[in-house]
Design a protein that fits this description.
Structural class: alpha+beta
CATH class: Alpha Beta
Number of helices: 2
Order of helices and strands: EEEHEHEE
CATH architecture: 2-Layer Sandwich
Strand content: 25-35%
Number of domains: 1
Length: about 120
């Protein structure tokens, strides 16, 4: 298991797992759950940025994202507004978005991210 790295690990979850030059982030949500969908999206994506940096990569190397919305009818457009500003032009990842019951009633959006580790010395 030495080829697997885990960061910010608790008994239940690792926030970051790296294996075979792939980075897997657990679901990221906003810390301030009183915010609207735009605010929660911005906070959650800032956490994604921080975790990607800790793994030695960045949003330009994101390959796939699962997005869970509490109310897709109400929040899809607002989330996409922030998402579109966050994604790197020409590097949009594969993506799926769905509505689901969230783990807490005040969570509006959650992002599950898979990325590639940035190459060393451009290789």
């Amino acid at each position: 298991m030495s080829d697997i790295q885990r960061f910010e690990t608790s008994a239940r979850v690792s926030r970051v797992v790296i294996c075979n030059n792939m980075v897997f982030l657990c679901g990221q949500t906003a810390d301030d759950r009183q915010l609207d969908i735009r605010g929660q999206t911005k906070q959650a994506l800032a956490k994604v940025d921080r975790l990607l940096a800790a793994a030695g990569t960045d949003r330009s190397r994101v390959l796939a994202v699962q997005i869970w919305l509490k109310d897709i009818g109400r929040d899809f457009a607002g989330m996409n507004e922030v998402w579109d500003a966050w994604t790197v032009p020409g590097a949009a990842p594969a993506r799926a978005t769905a509505q689901c019951d969230m783990g807490a009633p005040d969570v509006l959006v959650e992002f599950i991210v898979t990325a590639s580790v940035a190459p060393v010395n451009g290789n």
